[in-house]
Amino acid sequence: MRGLHRYDSILDAIGWTPIVRLNRITAGLPAEVWAKLEFLNPMGSVKDRIARHMIEKAEADGRLQPDGLILEASSGNTALGLALVAIQKGYKLKVVVRDSTSPEKIALLRALGVDIEFVDASLPPEHPDSYNNKAPRLARGLSGCFFPDQHNNRENNETHYLTTGPEIWEQMEGRIDYFVAGMGTGGTVAGVGRYLKERNPHIKVIAVEPEGSVFAEYFRTGRRPQPKRYLMEGLGDEFIIGTADFEPLDDVVQVSDGEAFLTARRLAREEGIVAGGSSGAVLAVVLKLARELPPGTRIVTLFPDSGFRYASTIYNDQWMHEHGFTVEPGS
Ligand code: PMP
C-alpha cells in the first residue's frame, strides 16, 4: 500500500522517492532548487527503476526464462539494481564493470553474489575488450542469456517516461521551469524530459556530462569528438549510444571532475545531503542557472546515487589529493 509505505515485496518500494527543496546551498539565489533523491531507492540508486522494468518486460515477452542468466555492462549502479531484482526473482547475474569502479560498489556486488568481469578502463573504445564491446560479445557466446543492454535499450528511457517523469510532475504540481539531470545512458534525462515536455512544452531540459565525454559536441555539431578520460562514474560515454535521445534536450553542458566532486562535498557540508559525484555535477550546473534566472523560477534536478558509495574516493581527502583536487580544510 503506497500511502502507508507497506509493500508485499521490496521491488514495490522502488520509485516514489522524495523531492526536497535545497535551502542553504542556494541562499541568496533568486531561483528555487528542488532535488529528487533517487539514492533513497532500495538498492541506493535511480537504476533500480530500469532494472525492474527491463527485467519485467523481458519476462513478459519470453526473452528471459525462469532461472535464466542476466548479463549487463554497468558503472555499478545498474548492476546493483539488477542484483536486487535478480535475487528477488531467482535469476543469476553476471556484470561487466570497469576496473576504475569504486571499491564500495564492487564490495557490495560481491557480497550480493554477483559474478563480476572487470575491463581495463584505459583500453581505447575500439578495443574488443573495451567496456562497450565486451558485454555484447560475452552475451552472444552464452546461450539463453538475457542482455538488457541499458546503453541501447529504449525500455531504459521508457522507465523514466512511465515513472520518474510522472512522479516529478505530480510532486511539483506541474510547476516546473527547468529540469536538469546527468546523462550517462541518457535514459533519465531524455525519458523524464520527454514526459515533462508533453505536459508543458515550455519546460527547459538540460543534460549534464563530464568534460571528455562526447554528447555535448555531438548535440551541437553532429560530430563525435575524440573522447578523453575522466573520473566521474555513471555519466558520459565514448560513443553515441542508442539510448542517447537528444530530441527532448535543450542543451548538453559539461562539468569537470573537480567541480563535480567539490560541489558534491559542498552539498554534504551545507545541506547534509551525501550524494555521488554525478549529483555534484548536476548541482554545479543548477547553481549557475539559479544565479541567472528570475526570482521564483523552479529548477528541478535529480541526485542519482549516494555519497556512501564513494567514501573511499571523492569523500576521502587523500584520494582527492592524489588525483590533483584541492581540498580545503572542511570542504
Ligand atoms: N549518475 C550515476 C551515479 C549513474 O550510475 C548513472 C547511470 N549510468 C547516471 C548518473 C546517469 O543516468 P542515465 O544512465 O539514466 O543517464
TrEMBL record:
It holds the Pfam family PALP. It comes from the Bacteria. The keyword Calcium does not apply. GO terms for biological process: cysteine metabolic process; serine family amino acid metabolic process; sulfur compound biosynthetic process. Keywords: Pyridoxal phosphate. Its cofactor is pyridoxal 5'-phosphate. Belongs to the cysteine synthase/cystathionine beta-synthase family. PANTHER family: CYSTATHIONINE BETA-SYNTHASE (PTHR10314). This is Cystathionine beta-synthase.
